[in-house]
Amino acid sequence: MPYRDQATVNAWVRDFLAANPDIHSEISVLEKDYVSGPESGLVAVAMRHASTVTYIQAVVRDDHPTWIVTFEARPDSFDLDAVGVSRLAEELSTIARIALFLQDQTDLVVEQRA
């Protein structure tokens, strides 16, 4: 199995969603040409309570692939009431859970290949 190619990342995202039926965020693996290697794969998460482009990708740090979350810059500020902040916090928690899941899956692959 190639290392984090599109099919692998899609399978990981499907596994995550199947194990977490409470998650209602729009999560997708971007369609692009995947090249086998530690920096392949890009997972996009659509946030409902903050219109910013958010994606999760693997980068190599200290010779080890690490999944990081990128929040692209917004052109304008936005205001939320307490309920909106709570909902945004839930979305951020979901993104953290996905990133942790992808990291765990990556660590398993790295261990198996060592």
Quick recap:
The protein is an alpha+beta fold and 114 residues long. Helix content is 40%, strand content 22%. The protein has one domain: TATA-Binding Protein (2-Layer Sandwich), CATH 3.30.310.
Structure description:
- The protein is of the alpha+beta class and 114 residues long.
- The protein has a single domain, classed as TATA-Binding Protein (2-Layer Sandwich).
- It has 2 helices and 4 strands.
- It has a 4-stranded antiparallel beta sheet with strand order 1-2-3-4.
- A hairpin with a 2-residue loop joins strand 3 and strand 4.
The name of the CATH architecture is 2-Layer Sandwich
Q: CATH fold name, please? A: TATA-Binding Protein
Determine the mean pLDDT: 85
Summing up helix and strand content along with how strands pair, one would put the structural category as alpha+beta
Q: Total helix count?
A: 2
Q: How many beta-strand segments?
A: 4
Q: Approximately what portion of the residues adopt beta-strand conformation?
A: 15-25%
Query: Helix share of residues?
Result: 40-55%
Largest sheet: 4 strands, antiparallel
Q: Terminal Cα separation, in Å?
A: 15 Å
Give the spatial strand order of the biggest sheet.
Answer: 1-2-3-4
Shape: globular
Question: Quaternary status of these chains?
Answer: single chain
Number of domains: 1
The CATH C-level name is Alpha Beta
Could you state the order of secondary-structure elements as H and E?
A: HEEEEH
